[in-house]
Amino acid sequence: MTSTNSSAILSDASYARHSLAQIAFIRAFEAKALALTQTKPPSVLGSMHFCAGQEAVPLGAVAGLRDDDQIVCTYRGHGWAIASGLDPRAVFAEICQKAEGINGGRAGSALMMAPDTRFIGENSIVGAGTTIACGVAMANLHKGNGRVVVVTIGDGALNQGAVSEAFALAAARKLPVIFVVENNGWSEMTSTDDMFLAKRLAQRTAGYGIPSATIHGTDPIVVRDSFAIAAERARNGDGPVLLECRVPRLWGHYNRDMEHYRSKEDRRKAEQIDPFITLSQRMIDAGLMTEREVEELREEEERKVERIADVVMASPDPVPEGLLDHVVAAPTDGRPRVTGTKEMSFIEAVNAALRAELDNDEAVIVYGEDVGKGGGIFAASRNLQREYGAHRVFDTPIAENAILGSAVGAAISGLKPIVEIMWADFLFVALDQLVNQASNIRYITGGKSGAPMVVRTQQGATPGSCAQHSQSIEAMLAHVPGLKVALASSATDAYALLRAASADPDPVIVIEARGLYQVRSTVELTEGAEPVGKARLRRPGKDVAIISWGTMVDPAEAAAEALAEEGIDAAVLDLRWLNPIDEEALAHVVGEAGGRVLIVHEAVRTGGFAGEIGFRIQELLGERMALSVRRLATMDTRIPASPVLQAAVIPNARSIANVARALAGKRMIAA
Ligand SMILES: Cc1ncc(C[n+]2csc(CCOP(=O)(O)OP(=O)(O)O)c2C)c(N)n1
After folding, report:
1. Lesser CB count within 10 Å: N end or C end of the chain?
2. 356-403, pLDDT tens digit by residue?
C-alpha cells in the first residue's frame, strides 16, 4: 500500500491546501444535508449516503485525471459530483429534491445524473455502474477521443455478478476504465472482513489480467498520482486498472443508520484516519499551516455551505406540471421511402436491417455472444464483421449484464448499440440494465440524455426446446415505463421493426420469433424507418376482431381464413408494439367488429399482455358500445420440450377459430 510522507507535502503545498479546503467543503456540505434530514419534522425526506471520510478519493482522482475524463459512481456520490465540477448548489438542490436540482428533483441524493457533463452519474443498484462504464469507454474508443472512465464501487459490490461481468468485458476489449473500490470496511451493516478471505481486495482482478493496486484513499497526493498512472496506462491502450482505495467510514451507512452493529473501537479507528484530521496535521507538522488557519479554513468552507443551503431551501419544489414529460421521447411521424422489395426469410431480413443500419450511421455498433466472427447462432449477423470491421461488429464474453450495461453506457455516449441477447430467457440474468438503468436515463435527466439502444432477442417454443429456452416474456418488458417493446411476426416486420427501433431515441427491445426464422415473405427495403408504435391490420373483418402479436399472428390469420369459409368475417390485427400501444388501430378494429374481440398470445395466460389489451379496449370503447372480450393464451404451465405436449398447451389456428367462432356466433344470435 502506498502513502506519502510528511516531506512530500512540502513540494505539493498548494494542492494539499486546496485538497484540505475541498475535504472541508464536502464534509460541511454533507453535514448540512444530514442535519436537514434530522429536523423534526424532517426538512428533507428520504435516504442519503454520505462519503464522510472518503472525500480524498474523488478530489484526488479528479486531480490525477484529464479534465474530460468521466465519472460513474455509486449512491455515495456527493463528493464525486462536486469534484467533477458540477455546481454545488445544483447538487445540493438535487439532494434536497428541489426544482433547481441538476435533475429537477427526479433523482434525489442517490441517482443524480448529468451524462452531458463528465459526471455520467450515480447508481443505486450495487455494482451496476461498472458495466455502464464499460459502454462509455467503448464509445470513447470508437470516437478515438482518448477519454478514460472512472467507475467507483464499494467493497461489498465486488461480490456482485455485474462487477465480474464488467471486469470480463473490460479485459476482453482492453477498455480504458479505472475501476475504483472505495473500501470503507463496511457493506451497509456487514463487515468487509466477514465477506472476504482475501486481505487485499485488489487481488480480485488478477484472474482477469487486470493490474491493480491498494492505496491510502485518505491521502489526496497518493490518490492523485495513482489515478494519473492508471489513466495514462488506460489512455495508452493498455486496458483497465483497478485501484482499491482504503478509506474510513466516518458516519453510518446512511442518514438514519444507528450503527448498532458497529463497535466503538471500529469507529474510533476510523476517526483516527479521518482525512481532514490527518491532512491538516501533516500541513501543521510541515509548517504549512497553523492550527488556527486550519480552523479558519474549515469555518470558511462551512459558511459557503450555509449560504448554498439557505438559497436552496428557499427555492421552490418541483411542480407536477410536465411530470410525464421525458418518460420516453415525443413520438415522431417519419415515413420511410421504399427503395425496393425482396423475398427473404425472417432471419435474412434481420441481417438486411442490421446491414442497413450499419451503412446508415457510423455510430451503430452490433455485438453480443457469438455475434462477431460466427455471425450469431441463428446467422442474424452473418458476414457483418467481415464487412464492417471488428470495431463495429464483435463478440462479447458470455455476460448478459455486461452486454446490456455497456449498451446503456455506449448509448448515453452517442453510439447506437444494437445488441443481441441470444434467447429471451437469458434476459432474466441481466434485467437490471433494462428495468433499472436504460429506462431511467431520459426521465431522470429530464430529456437531456437518453439511452437509444436496441436489444434484439428471440423467444417462443419450438419442438424440443426446453423450459428455459421457450418462454414468451413480452409482458414483463412492456410493463416498464421508459422501455419500448416490439414483436415481429414475419420477415417483412423483422426488417421494418428493427429499422424503426434503431431510428428511435429510446431503448427498444425487438422480440423475434425463432420458430419463424426460416419463413419467407416479401420485405420492403427502405430508406429511413417507420415510427415506433404502429400496428398492422393483416385482415379487416366485421364479425370478430382477433388481436395478436409475434408467433400467434400467422395462426390467427389461418383461423380467420378458415372462418371465412364458414361465412364469418374475422379481422386480424398484428399489434406489433406492446409499448407503446397503437390505441387508434385497436379501437378501430374492435369498433368495426362490433365490439367482439379475441386477444391471442403465446405467452402464458396469467399476467399475460391480453389482460392489458382487454382493459385498454374497455377504457377506449366501453362507454360507446357493448364489448365482448375473450383471450386465448398458453396454459399456465412450464413449457414442455415434447412437441406433443407443447401442442396441447399452446394456442393454434383451430383453437383460435373455435373461440372466435363462438364470439361471432353471439352477433348472429343478436342479429
Ligand atoms: C443490487 C443491490 N443489492 C443490494 C442493495 C442494497 N444496498 C445498498 S448499499 C449496500 C451496501 C453496499 O456496500 P459497499 O459496496 O461496500 O458500498 P458502501 O455502501 O459501503 O459504499 C446494499 C447491500 C442495492 N442497492 N442493490
Report:
1. C
2. 999 999 999 999 999 999 999 999 999 999 999 999 999 999 999 999
Residue bearing cell 445540493 = 92
**Cα–Cα distance, 19 to 162 (Å, whole number):** 33
How many domains would you assign to the chain? 3
Supply the pLDDT for residue 100. 98
The ipTM estimated for the assembled molecules is 0.99
Q: In degrees rounded to 5, what are phi and psi of residue 430?
A: -145, 15
Residues 632 and 611 in one domain: yes
CB atoms < 10 A from the CB of 551, how many? 27
Residues 548 and 479 in one domain: no
Q: Does residue 520 sit in the same domain as residue 582?
A: no
Let me know if residue 240 belongs to a domain: yes
pLDDT tens digits, 80-129: 999 999 999 999 999 999 999 999 999 999 999 999 999 999 999 999 99
Q: Is 186 in the pocket of ligand 1 (CB under 6 A)?
A: yes
Q: Is 154 in the pocket of ligand 1 (CB under 6 A)?
A: yes
269-307 pLDDT, tens per residue?
Answer: 999 999 999 999 999 999 999 999 999 999 999 999 999
Residue 315 lies in a domain: no
Question: Could you tell me the CATH number of the domain that includes residue 664?
Answer: 3.40.50.920
Q: Are residues 298 and 366 in the same domain?
A: no
Residue 38 lies in a domain: yes
Is ligand 1 within 6 A of the CB of residue 80?
no
Minimal CA–CA distance to 121: which of 46, 168, 183, 71? 71
CB atoms within 10 A of CB 654: 11
Classify residue 431: in a domain, yes or no.
yes
161 with 32, same domain: the answer is yes
Ligand 1, closest atom to CA 432? 1
Tell me, in angstroms, the distance from the centre of ligand 1 to residue 109's CA. 15
Q: Is the pLDDT of residue 600 over 70?
A: yes
Q: What is the pLDDT of residues 37-63, one digit of tens each?
A: 999 999 999 999 999 999 999 999 999
pLDDT of residue 5: 61
Catalytic center residues: 469
Q: Tell the residue nearest (CA) to atom 6 of ligand 1.
A: 126
Atom 25, ligand 1: residue with shortest CA distance: 125
Based on the fold, state whether residues 258 and 149 are members of the same structural domain: yes
Whether residues 127 and 227 share a domain: the answer is yes
200 pLDDT exceeds 90?
yes
Q: How many CB atoms lie within 10 A of CB 160?
A: 19
Q: Is 188 in the pocket of ligand 1 (CB under 6 A)?
A: yes
User: What stretch of H or E contains 306?
Assistant: helix 291-314
Residue 453 and residue 383 share a domain: yes
* Residue range(s) defining the domain that contains residue 635: 538-670
d(CA 161, ligand 1 centre) in Å: 13
Helix (H) or strand (E) holding 285: helix 275-285
Give the residue, out of 187, 195, 250, with the most ligand 1 atoms within 8 A of its beta carbon, to mutate for a pocket test: 187
- Cα(473)–Cα(482) distance, rounded to whole angstroms? 17
CATH of the domain at 297: 3.40.50.970
By most ligand atoms within 8 Å of CB, the mutation choice from 188, 195, 196 for ligand 1 is 188
